[in-house]
Amino acid sequence: MNKPTYVTEYQAIVEVLNQYIEGCKQAKSSIMKPAFSEKATMFSVDGDGKLTGGAIQALFDGIDSGFR
Hints:
Blueprint: H1 7-26, H2 29-32, E1 41-45, E2 51-55, H3 57-66
Antiparallel strand pairs: 1-2
C-alpha cells in the first residue's frame, strides 16, 4: 500500500519557498517577509568560520540594500 501524499502541506511549503525566492529575485524583502515569523533568526558562518546569527531583519535589510 502506498503512503498518502499530503498535497495541502506540500503546496503550503511551495508557496512559502516561492515567496522567499521571488523576494530575492526582485530584491524586495516585502515580498519574502510573510514567509518568516517575526521572531525568526538567521544563522550563518562568517569569513572566519565562526557561527553568527541575529534577527531576521538583518536578512531583510541585506536584501533591500545589497541585492540591487
